[in-house]
Amino acid sequence: xxxxxxxxxxLRHPLHxxxxxxxxxxxxxxxxxxxxxxxxxxxGFTRAAFYALATGLVAALVAAIPGFIDYADIRDxxxxxxxxxxxxxxxxxxVGTYAVSFGLRLGHLDAPSTPSLPLLVSxxxxxxxxxxxxxxxxxxxxxxxxVGRHRRKTQxxxxxxxxxxxxxxxxxxxxxxxxxTTDLRSGETIRAEIDGNVMCIAFLEGNYxxxxxxCTHRFGPLxxxxxxxxxxxxxxxxxxxxxxTGKVLHGPAKVDLKTWPVEIRDGQICVxxxxxxxxxxxxxxxxxxxxxxxxxxxxxxxxFGRQSGLD
Length: 311
Fold this sequence. Notes:
With 311 residues, the protein is an alpha+beta fold. It has seven helices and twelve strands. It starts with a helix and ends in a 17-residue tail after the last helix.
């Protein structure tokens, strides 16, 4: 599939960060040659800078293709989505700025040094390149965007399915339908939030398993991880867990995953949730007042401070 190729899965290496080195290097080389052309005029550095810039523009357009694929693969509720959008916009502005510089250089290839206007425009493009490059590194190292996805054979889930479980008067397990069995093929996952529990539902070795979404090491998204039989590998730092029991099989994680029972009812994947009896109204009121005064986290917001809800 073309999408898998652009994500670098056949190479076992992400494609976009591999390709961006070429335009970055060529654009930096353009600026260096421009400056050298003013220090040593009439030595052909103006023409060399022009060709470096032209090659950099072509390389930037090539690198942008897998970049767009990686951007489209970021789910809407990911905290890094806004940063990724800014990264993309800055890249487009940067390429446009360098394209303007390219146009201004036409007809001046034999000039003893690069004219001032295209040089200043290139400096502006370099500034945009620096900011965008910083944001790109932040997306990978800070937000974990696209980390480990090149190792996964199947597609990653794009949305979190929200399931509301009605209040219960006892502590018996309630099975909530999440999806149809036909929605999952072998090795694929679904991400769901049931009664405040964010979990991954996977179809492996002919069985369905439900376990917590976030790795116990650094909260890597396990629904985007790799699977080997009944083992899940975190895409970030490669901790491995047994999805049947949640047990840690390989570090750096040390804490086991939480798991939930799964049953198939009328062709639907149902996950078992145990709900505690609903607190009396007076108790709930005083508990909420206590949370306000103690500065407790708003239960209606997620760990990123956003209002909870579904895509």
